[in-house]
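Postdoc handover notes: sequence design on the structure in folder B. Input tokens:
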């Protein structure tokens, strides 16, 4: 099950068709062999053929159960994802609507003044609108990468320039929690071929998680170093960390690390799966190491001359 966790629905379907084709061929050969054995009156061959046929039928039944489980899990996960999205979208829409009603209510007299009302409600509208935008971006990422028409936009870019841009943009979010983001970029071969936007989304997802999953002032550190035929990026944080039981599932679609009694952390369980698939499409890999209570470190390897592929 875990082996195929990161495969797209289309690739899973193709693999299942191949498996079923092989099973049908084996069944046909077994039946032919069985009849041949009967006509030769060889009791041993008849018994072996019958046993193989029974085993194939049992295997087919077990495979059917696995496929059924996959379909049930995928459907349940999609329903949970949709329900979470709808529930999350309702909140900012309600807040924006109430703020707009307050600003449009001309019957209010006395303090607060109209200017004070604007100062109070416009930032709320702005923040909730930004929250909606992030939800839409998550939704689009999820649907786009599963589309058969999804393709990377290949261009040459400087990895260090990209990291510096992303770190500067993330400063506002990090500083809002009185934290800091630092870099130590030592790689010498920084020109990359790939989809700059998608790689930026991968790094941004990891930075956002680092800010989200912390009980302290977030400290995020990004490093780069030369690696054989590519570049190695490491993004570390001082967050709550990931339990050992979650490390094996962290890149699975819709999986969310349990946060205990914390209910202020929102997510949909697709960000890291998206990151893994984008990196794999660049012929790279991504790993994570973590200690609960001390933080996590994501290591991303990207080749300088990738062989781009679809998943």
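Designed sequence:
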């Amino acid at each position: 099950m875990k082996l195929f966790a990161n495969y797209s629905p289309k690739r899973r379907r193709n693999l299942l068709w191949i498996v079923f084709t092989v099973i049908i061929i084996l069944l046909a050969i077994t039946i032919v062999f069985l009849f041949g054995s009967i006509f030769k009156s060889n009791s041993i061959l008849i018994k072996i053929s019958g046993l193989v046929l029974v085993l194939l039928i049992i295997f087919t039944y077990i495979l059917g159960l696995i496929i059924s489980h996959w379909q049930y899990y995928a459907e349940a996960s999609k329903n949970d994802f949709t329900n979470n999205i709808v529930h999350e979208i309702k909140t900012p829409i309600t807040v924006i609507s109430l703020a707009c009603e307050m600003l449009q209510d001309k019957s209010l007299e006395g303090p607060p003044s109209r200017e004070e009302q604007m100062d109070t409600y416009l930032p709320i509208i702005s923040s909730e609108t930004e929250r909606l935008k992030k939800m839409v971006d998550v939704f689009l990422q999820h649907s786009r990468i599963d589309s058969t028409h999804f393709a990377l936009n290949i261009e040459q870019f400087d990895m260090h320039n990209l990291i510096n841009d992303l770190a500067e943009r993330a400063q506002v979010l990090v500083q809002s929690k009185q934290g800091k983001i630092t870099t130590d970029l030592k790689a010498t071969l920084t020109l990359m071929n790939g989809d700059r936007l998608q790689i930026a989304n991968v790094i941004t997802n990891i930075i956002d998680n680092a800010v989200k999953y912390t009980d302290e002032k977030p400290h995020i550190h990004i490093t780069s170093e030369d690696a054989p035929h590519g570049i190695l990026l490491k993004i570390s944080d001082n967050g709550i960390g990931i339990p050992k039981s979650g490390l094996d599932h962290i890149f699975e679609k819709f999986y969310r690390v349990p946060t205990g009694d914390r209910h202020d952390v929102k997510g949909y369980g697709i960000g890291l799966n998206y990151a893994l698939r984008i990196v794999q499409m660049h012929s790279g890999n991504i790993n994570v190491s973590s200690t609960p209570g001390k933080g996590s470190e994501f290591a991303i390897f990207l080749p300088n001359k990738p062989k781009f592929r679809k998943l």
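Context for whoever picks this up: Confidence is low (pLDDT under 50) at residues 261-265. Don't rerun without checking with the PI first.
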